[in-house]
Protein: Hyoscyamine 6 beta-hydroxylase
Organism: Anisodus luridus
Amino acid sequence: MATFVSNWSSNNVSESFIAPLDKRAEKEVPLGNDDPIIDLQQDHHFVVQQITKACKDFGLFQVINHGFPENLMAETMKLCKEFFALPAEEKEKLQPKGKPAKFELPLEQKAKLYIEGEQLSNDEFFYWKDTLAHGCHPLDEELVNSWPEKPTTYREVAAKYSVEARKLTMRMLDYICEGLGLKLGHFDNELSQIQMMLTNYYPPCPDPSSTLGSGGHYDGNLITLLQQDLPGLQQLIVKDDNWIAVEPIPTAFVINLGLTLKVITNEKFEGSIHRVVTNPTRDRVTIATLIGPDYSCTIEPAKELLSQDNPPLYKPYPYAEFAEIYLSDKSGYDAGVKPYKINA
């Protein structure tokens, strides 16, 4: 059953959504009390130090007092929830060829509704979520006109949200540049050319113990800005091999470092391995802004970070080639970059 979860409800979980035992989440996961929460209104140099430490230790942190209009956050979240509550025939206008899209190259900038899952030998299971995805940079008329027509203010509000999201995310990348000793604006080029807005809808699930909202993974892009209002996001603390829950903070954004940034920093900074669990009683909606390279880019460790004592850990590779592996090979969290790793 590969259809939109938001189109139906049931007291049972369809077999195609049941995750294998070794993929399922533990029933009890502790709250991550050490997760960094960074106040961007504090002293600039102190903020840079905090972000640098969070990037080295966790690859994930939350920011508050970030300057993103709170009323815009609330309005966009409201409209996204309204979109997924629309009748099936309205949402199906965004289905290519009459069926849900799967994440595969080439990813289109025009709006589509996606389902996502994992291929297991000759079988496949699907995550308990639907995803509305579309590009949002640059904001040209043709692109915006591909976005949902309903709710009627979605296009106007999502466009404003996308501009503010890019502004904040590029600010985060400049903080990262400072922490690394890179020139400000190092990422303000083809490395941040692609901007996607992914709105994920996780309906209430009758059996959370057998399903996943999303399996454990790195984001493949450069950096992700995530708005969430309910629990569900969990992060793997690699050194302890333990999962922790990332507590939602009202009006905060979660900042997630992707595999591409981990490579460019030559592993000075971590990426974040994370997953999403389902909820038996409440719908959960998240809004993710993903910033990443143009597919024509070549990715390699930043030369300014390399030395005789710190040689490159990865050979240069085409981003499009990496993306193809990343989307198809689920054999390990870092499977997408393994072919390019230089063995010591």
Residues 5-340 form a domain with the Jelly Rolls fold (CATH 2.60.120.330).
